Amino acid sequence: MRRALHGVVTAVCMGGTALGTGAVLQQSPFTAPFVERSTHDVQRALERATARTVTPEWLLPRLTEALAEEDRDRVTMLTALAQDHAITLPAPLPEQIAAFEAAQEGWLRGATDCALCAYDIMSCPSITLIGACAVPVELTPLGDINALRRAAVAALSGEEPDQLEVGLAVVGLGATGLVVVSGGSTVTLKAGATMLRLARRLGTLTPGLMRSLRSASDIPVVWSRMPDFALGRAPLSAVTDTARLSDLGRMTQNVGTLGRNTSTADALVLLRHVDSAEDAARMARLSTAAGPGTRRTVEVLGKTRAFRALVRLSNAAIAALALIYALALQLLLLAGSWAGSRLLRMLTRPRAGHSRAPVS
Question: Is the pTM of this model over 0.85?
């Protein structure tokens, strides 16, 4: 009786678990197992992951290397990380950092050097100086107009114009004209187009992002209307198919969001980690949560771990995994119980020739 009751209870439990698992799996919980975290949850996940990673053993070799390479941007970032995580720098690092920063301040005070950086970004010794001296000039329409001028000369002379430069210049100049009217996202759009042009000149765009940008920049251009467009006498639709610019516009907008949430200098560095249009969208969302600390976060965690903090397992996927685990555990317990019972019967079964004689 007890064995029968145990079998009934086991069957009911397993049947209920199996039915529940089947019902959950019918909803296809693993089709999209991950969902986006809220901005607050992303911040907490990034803080936990960064706190686990930033240790003296991780930080000190990198800071020493940055000083040896005279990389002002990394020295500043790693020093800030040490302060944020209460890591005491052993001698002689504090003295070396102070001497290095004093030497750099002399460069930053030079108006002539800044002017040279604005004229030719390849002469800038640091990304920070590019953001301070070159970007304000590039954000004006002059940079876009000059890019279109070069492309128009090439087209009129029978050469192939640089479609990527044309696309970014068209987006940037079109956004410049709309800023006065809207004052909204077009500012971000213009900034994103400028940063992509600068990154391309610096050679910091990844091959994957270059492919995405070139594909999105494959747009028709009416060169005869380009002078009127550059002077603001013709709309954007007069020189190209605006619908074809949507993909390029989205990527540019995401890069502009990245620059707005961090800084132009940090955005130019972070573009080295962007390999596709999807990466650009993820990096923009990461910057919304991490803010000015985005570059430090990516430096510490790497792109893959930082992007992983943006998502979590959905509740449906968690429930499905829990039910599958419960069903598998019940099957294992049932198999173990059956095998144990069989083994016990085999051990207690009387052997042939050793049967006990009946007691008279």
Answer: no
Q: Comparing C-alpha atoms, which of 215, 178, 209 is closest to residue 196?
A: 209
Rg (CA), the chain: 32
**Calpha distance 198→122 (Å, rounded):** 10
8 Å CB contact between 255 and 284: yes
Query: What dihedral angle (degrees, nearest 10) is formed by the CA atoms of 52, 96, 123, 192?
Result: 20
Cα separation of 195 and 267, whole Å? 8
DSSP symbol at 34: E
More confident residue, 224 or 109: 224
Residue 35 belongs to what H/E stretch? Answer: strand 34-36
Q: Are 205 and 269 in contact (CB under 8 A)?
A: no
Domain ranges, ordered by start, for the chain? 2-33+315-341, 139-275
Place of tokens 């792109």: 303
Contact yes or no for 130/198 (Cβ under 8 A): yes
- Distance between CA atoms of 203 and 257, rounded to whole angstroms? 21
Flag whether pLDDT at 111 surpasses 70. Answer: no
Nearest to 300 by CA among 133, 81, 26: 81
How does residue 183 score in pLDDT terms, banded at 50, 70 and 90? Answer: very low
Flag whether pLDDT at 200 surpasses 70: yes
Which of residues 170 and 45 earns the better pLDDT score? 45
